[in-house]
Amino acid sequence: MKKLSDWPRAVIFVTLMTGFTMAMAMAANTMYRWIDADGNVVYSDMPPPANARNAESLNQRQPISDVNADNEPSYAEQEAKFQERQKQRAQAEAEANEKAETAAARKQNCEQAQADLYTVNNPTGGRLRELNSEGVLVYMTEEQVEARRAQANDAVQEWCKG
User: Fold this and answer.
1) CB-hemisphere CA count at 13 Å for 101?
2) Which residues of 9-27 are buried (b: 16+ CB within 10 A; e: fewer)?
3) What is the reported pTM?
4) CA dist., res. 19 & res. 161, Å (int)
5) Closest Cα partner for 84 from 94, 92, 72?
6) How many Cβ atoms from other residues are within 10 Å of residue 7's Cβ?
7) Which pLDDT tens digit goes with each residue over 111-124?
């Protein structure tokens, strides 16, 4: 004779096995839908009679391999697309950084060119001087000042565009 403590385990086991068996049986059966002679919509796991209208099978399943082949890219394809997007993002980021660095250098060069032009046009302490080849400060002639002013104007034009 069985002990009373063994009954709950047996009941749970039998219940689970029955549920599993029923689920498998339901999953294996094909369901049908049709309209009978009286105009009623009928659902059944039995095929419709010959005189049924609009008969159709409801749960036609495709194999998983067919579904994946037609609708979704494979993991390798998804990974390749992801890697391509990462590569494009990195290239765009590098281009943006390069553009920002170029803009910063251009701004700095513009400021320097404007300062040089200001110095040529507004000398402090009188005449402009420069170091000669021996390292001695000498006063610039008017021709040298005009040449330096033209260089400064050209530099401002080059570096301070839009």
Assistant:
1) 6
2) eeeeeeeeeeeeeeeeeee
3) 0.47
4) 80
5) 92
6) 10
7) 999 998 998 888 77
Q: Round to whole Å and give the CA distance between 41 and 32.
A: 10
Question: In whole angstroms, how far apart are CA 81 and each of 84, 105, 146?
Answer: 5, 36, 61
Query: What CA–CA distance (Å, rounded) separates 126 from 149?
Result: 16
Q: Using CA atoms, how far apart are residues 116 and 122, in angstroms rounded to an integer?
A: 10
Q: Which of 70, 27, 65 is nearest to 45 (CA)?
A: 27
Q: Which residue has the higher pLDDT, 67 or 56?
A: 56
**pLDDT tens across 75-117, in order?**
899 999 999 999 999 999 999 999 999 999 999 999 999 998 9
**Main-chain phi, psi angles of 147, to 5 degrees:** -65, -40
Give the N- to C-terminal CA distance of the chain in Å, as an integer: 100
Rounded CA separation 54/44 (Å): 14
Q: Provide the pairing of β-strand 129-131 with 41-44.
A: unpaired
